[in-house]
């Protein structure tokens, strides 16, 4: 909520015309149809989510999702145990615990099982059951879909896609907003150069590591033995874990990981 307010304030300071509650209904050669009126544009940036209407109208159709999972979240009145996001694993999926206030956490379930629900999954996370046993949860449980989706093109003519409208990676990476911010920077530069093809190339570069990390992390889903080996190896090899996190956040590269580090991690994985 705070981030949203800051973004709105900055946009307003730059003179952006914010039309809250105005519905976008279509797209034509003359402009975008907003609130019953046709608004011409020099550039059209479509940031309307993974089910983007403007993506469909512009002809930048999506490919089929590489994978799809199901998410549920609710807020509990309980003191956070840490300032960090916790990820708890079980055979049914993961539960994420995020501190959102001094006396409140957001707990989210992400699973590959379409019929599984929050209350049925919680008993599989023994540590969380203990922590949340007497905690009051408020607001209703919210459901959503998290998909790994890759598009062939994220720009065409004067139209560009950004955020989840431009494709997405599974929420397990925690990279949603970060990807969108990097895309925004590259898209602005491409507009200044009057070459949206530069954004296409940058988009591929920005999403390459998150997609690889998503596949790597999801390889542990539903595989208890492999998951135990992998997490055990990373627990013993702190430096390798730190370097992998650095690669994931963009502060390091795969090349800097080193052959020796990879061999040692593989050895620990085999003998975990």
Name its key features.
alpha+beta, 39% helix, 272 residues, 11 strands, D-Amino Acid Oxidase, Chain A, domain 2, 3-stranded antiparallel β-sheet
Describe, in short, the structure shown.
The chain has helices at 2-13, 53-58, 118-121, 126-132, 176-192, 197-218, 224-236, 238-249, 259-270, and strands spanning 24-27, 32-34, 37-39, 44-46, 67-77, 86-90, 93-101, 104-111, 136-148, 155-156, 159-161. With 272 residues, it is α+β, with helices and mostly antiparallel strands. Helix 5 runs antiparallel to helix 6.
Q: What is the topology?
A:
Elements: H1 2-13, E1 24-27, E2 32-34, E3 37-39, E4 44-46, H2 53-58, E5 67-77, E6 86-90, E7 93-101, E8 104-111, H3 118-121, H4 126-132, E9 136-148, E10 155-156, E11 159-161, H5 176-192, H6 197-218, H7 224-236, H8 238-249, H9 259-270
Parallel strand pairs: 4-11
Antiparallel strand pairs: 1-2, 2-3, 5-8, 5-9, 6-7, 7-8, 10-11
Helix pairs in contact: 5-6, 7-9
Structure commentary:
With 272 residues, the chain is an alpha+beta fold. It folds into four domains: 1-38, no CATH class; 42-63 and 149-219, FAD/NAD(P)-binding domain; 67-147, D-Amino Acid Oxidase, Chain A, domain 2; 223-270, no CATH class. 39% of the residues lie in helices and 24% in strands. A hairpin with a 2-residue loop joins strand 2 and strand 3 (37-39). Helix 5 packs antiparallel against helix 6 (197-218). The termini are far apart.
